[in-house]
Every structure is written in C-alpha cells, then in structure tokens.
C-alpha cells in the first residue's frame, strides 16, 4: 500500500498543471460548449490512464418559467459514464460535476497563485480539483493486486450547480446498481467532511392581475406586483416556524412601466428542509397562502416547482462508510470528522435512491461560488491518497460492503 500511496506524491506538479488548464476553460452550467470541452478532455484522460469503458449521454434541457408563464429552455452539456469491471463483487459509484457557477461572461476566468501552496481560480475546488483527485485515486488503485474485487463507475455530470435537473434520472438509476458512492465535492472549509445535508426545492410563483391605466382607470386595475408583495411577506414569515426549515425569495420581477397597473409578476424561491416530513409542511403552508391570494378578486397565483433534493440523513450504512473514511484519514495522519451542513449536492440524490455515500472527498480550499475561490494545492495529493486507501480497504472486504442491489 505504501508504494501505491507514495507514487501519488510524485504527481503534485502534473496535477497542478492539469488543474490550471481545466479551470481556465469556462464551464458555467449554461455554457454548453465549455462544459462539453471539459467533459471530453477529462473522459479522454480517464480512458487513457484507466483503460475503461466510456459512454456519452445527452441529458434533458433545463427549463425556467418567465413572468408571462412561458418556458425558457437551456440545452445542457453531455454526461459521461466511465466504467470498469461491472461483474466484480463490489461496485463503487464515483461522481463529480463538470460545471461551475461562473457563466461564460464572468470576470473570473483565470488562475492566480496566492502563494506557492494556494491557487485561486474558477472551479479549482468546486470541483475540478476533485475530478483530478478521483482520477488519481483510481489510477493508483488500478496498480494494486486487489483490482478483481472491485468494479467502478464514474459519472461526470454537466448540471450539478443548478440542482442536476438533467442528470438526476441517470444518477438515481446508477445508484441502484452500486453498493456505495464516493463524491468529489470539496471538503468543508475546515477540511472536514459533510455529514447530514439539508434537502432543497426550487419554486416559481406566477401572478396575474388586470392591467389598467395608472391615472385614468387605476381603480379598474388589479396589481400583480402588490399581490406578489403580500405573498413574499407571508412566505418570509414562515422562517423560524419549523426547526431547520428556511425559505428564501431569490428573484422577483414584474411590470413594464410606471403608468400602468402591472398584470404580471413572478418570484422564484428556494426552500431548505431538514427531514423529509418538512416537505409536506411547506406544501401545506404554501397552499394556505396561495388560497388567500387567490381569494382576491381579479388576482390569480399559480405555483410551480418541487423539492428536487430530499434531505440526506445518515443511517447505519452511511455511518459505517463514514467510519471507514475517518479510519483511513487517521492512518494517513489527518484524522477527519463529519459535520452537518445546509448545503446540498448529488450526495442527496444518491442517498434518496438508497445508496450510502460520502460526498466531500474532493480537495480542501475555500470561498467556493465566489471570485476568490481557492484550493490548497497539497490537498490534491492528500485527498487522492485518502481515496486510494478507501478503495483498497473496500476491495479487501467486498462482502462487508455489498448490499442488495436492484
Ligand atoms: Zn460542487
């Protein structure tokens, strides 16, 4: 094992160089060409180093509702599936996303060294660094004498940063065919693992009123923006009413000019949940508010959206896997623990599909989703060693980790 782990140490320089190259290709979720460029580069690297099977899939488009209720469609990049030894006793699913939150016209496009161990750049931590960690760990594992015990599938998906609308179905299907999941989201800023994660849902409220001239016939108008304002206040007041549930109005728009009573308005909001029963509570509360608004003459409110990601809770199978990860990290001299977080990721999706998983096996860095995102470069090697060790330990005891797959 020692020889395998020390072979990773020698990879620091090429890993850093590749990371800079990947980070400087813009792959904001809606930049389809950029996401595809990163996907092609990476899948070629995986195939060259791991000699694995490769499939490329188109995913469903992402749709958003405009204020007038019409749908705006965005084609997403492709999803890649790389796999090896599908008949081995233990099957591990590794996932990572190709997209970042930085759009094609973002000002944040280049990498910059903050010191000799710290690199700033778009997606260096979230999660192009993690994708390289995954590749490096698998490459080391493939040199071990235990390979026949463990087969693996890697999913590189194009849309995690918008909630994986296009890749959710493939993630759920693959989850059912594997025994456990390893996901390469960045570690929490203090280096620890994320344990429980909140669930999340995105919703759109569309308001229709009656247009009228602001001066001559104001009394005949029914103001859609005012109705929306009442809705927003009522939704905001749900915060604090149920433990662990938060509701955030993120976008609001409507109307076209000041001399007309606006007949259209739209707001978009996000809800975070702690346990799955929270979803029903939220739906009931929204329904009550909706009825109040709709009881106003001339006003109509329709609600769209759903809870895309259920909360991730840690059952016995998850806890056993977390235990293994912390044991391995202890052996490597950096003992890790796990903490709960309000953030969510594809780990929620895999848990919801019944697959125990650890979802913060990527690099250590910070300020993700901001223009000062950075990575602590030595974590590329450290985290690749951790994952290589996890794979080796899993392969030593395939029967312990097998579950009843579908
Ligand atoms: Zn991420």
From TrEMBL:
<feature type="active site">
    <location>
        <position position="99"/>
    </location>
</feature>
<dbReference type="GO" id="GO:0004180">
    <property type="term" value="F:carboxypeptidase activity"/>
</dbReference>
<dbReference type="InterPro" id="IPR050072">
    <property type="entry name" value="Peptidase_M20A"/>
</dbReference>
<dbReference type="InterPro" id="IPR002933">
    <property type="entry name" value="Peptidase_M20"/>
</dbReference>
<protein>
    <submittedName>
        <fullName>Glutamate carboxypeptidase</fullName>
    </submittedName>
</protein>
<dbReference type="InterPro" id="IPR036264">
    <property type="entry name" value="Bact_exopeptidase_dim_dom"/>
</dbReference>
<feature type="active site" description="Proton acceptor">
    <location>
        <position position="160"/>
    </location>
</feature>
<keyword id="KW-0170">Cobalt</keyword>
<feature type="domain" description="Peptidase M20 dimerisation">
    <location>
        <begin position="196"/>
        <end position="286"/>
    </location>
</feature>
<dbReference type="InterPro" id="IPR017150">
    <property type="entry name" value="Pept_M20_glutamate_carboxypep"/>
</dbReference>
<dbReference type="Pfam" id="PF07687">
    <property type="entry name" value="M20_dimer"/>
</dbReference>
<dbReference type="InterPro" id="IPR011650">
    <property type="entry name" value="Peptidase_M20_dimer"/>
</dbReference>
<keyword id="KW-0121">Carboxypeptidase</keyword>
<dbReference type="Pfam" id="PF01546">
    <property type="entry name" value="Peptidase_M20"/>
</dbReference>
<keyword id="KW-0378">Hydrolase</keyword>
<keyword id="KW-0479">Metal-binding</keyword>
<dbReference type="GO" id="GO:0046872">
    <property type="term" value="F:metal ion binding"/>
</dbReference>
<keyword id="KW-0645">Protease</keyword>
């Amino acid at each position: 094992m020692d020889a395998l782990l020390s072979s990773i140490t020698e990879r620091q320089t090429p890993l850093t160089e590749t990371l800079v190259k990947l980070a400087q290709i813009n792959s904001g979720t809606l930049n389809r060409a950029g996401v595809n460029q990163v996907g092609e580069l990476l899948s070629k690297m995986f195939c060259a180093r791991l000699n694995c099977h490769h499939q490329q899939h188109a995913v469903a488009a992402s749709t958003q509702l405009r204020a007038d209720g019409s749908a705006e469609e965005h084609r997403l990049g492709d999803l890649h599936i790389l796999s090896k030894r599908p008949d081995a006793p233990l099957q591990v699913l590794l996932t990572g996303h190709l997209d970042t939150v930085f759009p094609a016209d973002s000002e944040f496009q280049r990498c910059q060294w903050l010191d000799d161990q710290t690199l700033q750049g778009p997606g260096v931590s979230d999660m192009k660094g993690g994708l390289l960690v995954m590749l490096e760990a698998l490459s080391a594992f493939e040199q071990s004498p235990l390979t026949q015990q463990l087969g693996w599938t890697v999913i590189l998906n194009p849309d995690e940063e918008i909630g994986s609308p296009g890749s959710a179905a493939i993630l759920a299907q693959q989850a059912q065919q594997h025994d456990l999941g390893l996901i390469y989201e960045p570690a929490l800023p203090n280096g620890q693992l994320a344990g429980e994660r909140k669930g999340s849902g995105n919703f759109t409220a569309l308001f229709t009123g009656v247009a009228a001239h602001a001066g001559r016939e104001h009394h005949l108008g029914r103001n859609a923006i005012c109705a929306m304002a009442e809705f927003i206040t009522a939704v905001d007041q749900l915060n604090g009413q149920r433990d662990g549930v938060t509701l955030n109005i993120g976008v609001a728009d409507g109307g076209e000019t000041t001399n007309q009573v606006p007949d259209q308005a739209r707001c978009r909001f996000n809800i975070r949940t702690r346990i799955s029963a929270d979803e029903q509570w939220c739906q009931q509360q929204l329904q009550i508010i909706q009825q109040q608004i709709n009881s106003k003459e001339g006003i109509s409110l329709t609600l769209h959206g759903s809870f895309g990601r259920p909360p991730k809770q840690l059952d016995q199978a998850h806890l056993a896997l977390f235990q293994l990860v912390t044991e391995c990290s202890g052996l490597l001299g950096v003992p890790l623990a796990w903490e709960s977080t309000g953030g969510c990721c594809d780990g929620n999706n895999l848990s919801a599909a019944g697959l125990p998983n650890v979802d913060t096996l990527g690099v250590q860095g910070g300020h993700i989703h901001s223009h000062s995102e950075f990575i602590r470069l030595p974590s590329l090697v450290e985290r690749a060693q951790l994952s290589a060790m996890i794979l080796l330990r899993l392969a030593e005891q395939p029967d312990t980790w097998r579950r009843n797959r579908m």
